[in-house]
Amino acid sequence: MSIIQNYINIKNEIKNLNPNTKLIVVSKSQDIERIKILLDYGHLDFGENKIQEAIVKWSTLLSNYKNINLHLIGKLQSNKAKDAFNIFNFIHTLDNEKLAKILSNLEEVNNKKINYFVQVNIGDEPQKNGIIKSKVSDFIKYCKFDLKLNILGLMCLPPINENPDLYFKKLKEFAINNKLKDLSMGMSADYKAAATLGATYLRIGTSIFGKRSNQF
After folding, report:
1. In whole angstroms, how large is the CA radius of gyration of the chain?
2. Is there a domain that residue 167 lies in?
3. Model-level pTM?
4. CB-based burial, 62-92: b 16+ in 10 Å, e otherwise
5. What is d(CA 208, CA 78) in angstroms, rounded to the nearest whole number?
């Protein structure tokens, strides 16, 4: 099946599950020509994991296509914060105070605001990034009120090989308790559950593009 047909099928499925859910097409490891198929079709929201790959792929594309929303969905190291700030409109992986301070300073110096999701370690997994659950509310308040960051919502990666529903429900509960409206949750393997349980942003790549390219 073609990329466009996969895309149309996914979009229709999402609309039926939750009309308030937006689709981020995950373009990591995909070559530019495959991405352009969706750009030419009119899709505007794309997700990347790696800063350098995003710069290589998107610098020209952002000049040639207007109104693109580029989402960082991979780990952001502090030393890459400036590069990320310059190319991404949305950062879904804000997970520590040092990084939050750097981004706040970049906003002030550049007189520019971007959008953020706080990543929550929803499954208490030591190998994963994210704010631990007991610190989520304090971290959100610090980012919103002390640093004046535009925190849209929360993001999570549920534990692999477990039913994600419990974790999606817990993330939604955290969002409601902290008066946040957006939830970045759900990927190719679990997007149906995520959309049903209130995701406002889904991050889907493989179900649209198929197997990843080896270019990057």
Report:
1. 17
2. yes
3. 0.95
4. eeeeeeeebbbbbebeeeebeebbebbebbb
5. 31
